[in-house]
UniProtKB/TrEMBL annotation, chains A, B:
It comes from Bombella dulcis. Signal peptide: none annotated. Residues 8-296 form the Prephenate/arogenate dehydrogenase domain. This is Prephenate dehydrogenase/arogenate dehydrogenase family protein. The lineage of its organism: Bacteria, Pseudomonadati, Pseudomonadota, Alphaproteobacteria, Acetobacterales. Keywords: Oxidoreductase.
Length: 296, 296
């Protein structure tokens, strides 16, 4: 027999790429929730969710949706999580669960735990999945399959609530692991935030070239540059918020990167063939381990 | 009727990824040359070429191969082109053609033109194609299809010789264009060399992390980082030579990039949300143009 739904009523606030993928998964499997609400303040988004028929109910009242729900997942830009949580939490039922999918934690955990009404739990989780597209049309039910979802519950949250969310993400197809906010942000600074900062910057540098050179650069974009432009195609508001929220860790990671980049530039400047080769080989070692881990 | 072969005897010096792809293409189409010679100083490479049966003849004598050929293409690391050209050119027949596939030009063009015996032409070309693999097993006949091959003949080379090489690369499936060495190197610094420098460096930075963090970074490698590791997987010797040969243009391009990176870091440091978004959006603009150009 199929698993009974984990929740009775589930609200997704912000049915974009991540949110609409959860809704599609819930619809397709029937094991996440019996009744699905999509809440958003944009009428266009709600209209589109209706047309796509991926929720049982759509509403622009976040508080009303929250009041009816056993679980609410905030799938909105990082910078909006705190104010929206503050607005909806007083309306949430005892025994219900708040989550978000923010890709940077910073002090979100303790900040939101401090706002929790009696009996409401907060178990945020970061699904490490995505594409460069956004909006309700961009989602798909298999987005989280075989991807990591990192659970980052603040201290003092009930183990039962944590297990529920772990189960939720496993039913979405994810592998799950639990870690602290700080460690999460360190890992993400190097696997995701710094690569994006560099990709945005190299594309920006190309955009500022003289007109002729810019157009030829685009014409002859070889794989290296093309890969960067794909990374750089991601949503600007989301990434602005990520950079701001993970500011300290990201800038510290950038400085480590910059130090290494200067050592490489110096080796090239001094025509130190051995040092250049050594640095290139270290990069390849990482690739090798990724291949061994079947992540490449 | 099929086209007659362009050349009678063609020698590929260095049957690696690029060289063995030319050989496979020549074998498959029959329109590039009647007789194919693979020359290399490594017995292992020659043995493998024989096993793969992608040449009519293999030899470790580069000068003997050159003496018999109507065209010789050097598919060897950039740094080896000048000495090998110097060694084989005195043996080449009048009316024959020397080429190479170096991805950086620097002063190769005028340097080698100065060494040309009477009646021998030099028409180098850079096929903008490749994978992260190398060696005779890595090649395939369609590697150059729909990719640009940039012809960079030095001044004073006969138009007939240039047409021959243009025809050659078009028969390999490439789109071709002719440009100066200097312009070529500027374009490649940004579309290829700087992306590789950054990719090697970010992978190197990751490799230097503490053991725990390094292993988790690898475990959770999201798409951004994974893309960088793919770029960073390329051949160290080839890239060392590219960096050294295009030193001045690459370092100038790096400095432009670094200036932009600092402006982004400063915007994050100052929490200047508008400046961050503006910079991210510029990067996306480049991606949009690539999509319009059908290069994405």
């Amino acid at each position: 027999m199929a698993d009974a739904p984990l929740f009775d009523t589930l609200t997704i606030i912000g049915p974009g790429l991540i949110g609409s993928s959860i809704l599609r998964r819930a619809r397709q499997t029937g094991t996440l929730a019996r009744h699905l609400i999509a809440a958003d303040c944009s009428p266009d988004v709600l209209k589109r969710v209706k047309e796509l028929d991926i929720a049982d109910e759509v509403t622009d009242s976040l508080t009303e949706a929250a009041a009816k729900s056993d679980a609410v997942i905030l799938c909105i830009p990082t910078g909006a999580i705190r104010p929206v949580a503050e607005m909806i939490l007083p309306h949430m039922k005892p025994g219900s669960l708040l989550s978000d999918v923010a890709s940077v934690r910073s002090t979100l955990g303790p900040d939101i735990r401090a706002l929790l009404p009696e009996g409401v739990s907060y178990v945020p989780a970061h699904p490490m999945a995505g594409t460069e597209y956004s909006g309700p049309d961009a989602g798909f039910a298999t987005l989280f399959e075989d991807r990591w979802t990192l659970l980052v519950p603040p201290e003092g949250i009930s183990p039962d609530a944590i297990s529920m969310m772990e189960n939720f993400w496993q039913r979405c197809g994810s592998r799950t692991r639990q870690m602290t906010d700080h460690y999460h942000d360190q890992v993400c600074a190097i696997v995701s935030h710094l690569p994006h900062l560099l990709a945005f910057t190299i594309c920006d540098t190309a955009d500022r070239l003289s007109t002729d050179l810019r157009s030829d650069v685009l014409e002859y974009a070889a794989s290296g540059f093309r890969d960067f432009t794909r990374i750089a195609a991601s949503d600007p508001i989301m990434w602005r918020d990520i950079f701001l929220t993970n500011k300290d860790t990201l800038l510290a990671t950038f400085r480590r990167f910059e130090k290494e980049a200067h050592l490489m530039v110096e080796a090239i400047q001094n025509e130190d063939a051995e040092a250049i080769t050594e640095r290139i080989k270290r990069g390849r070692r990482i690739r090798q381990t990724l291949i061994e881990n079947r992540q490449a």
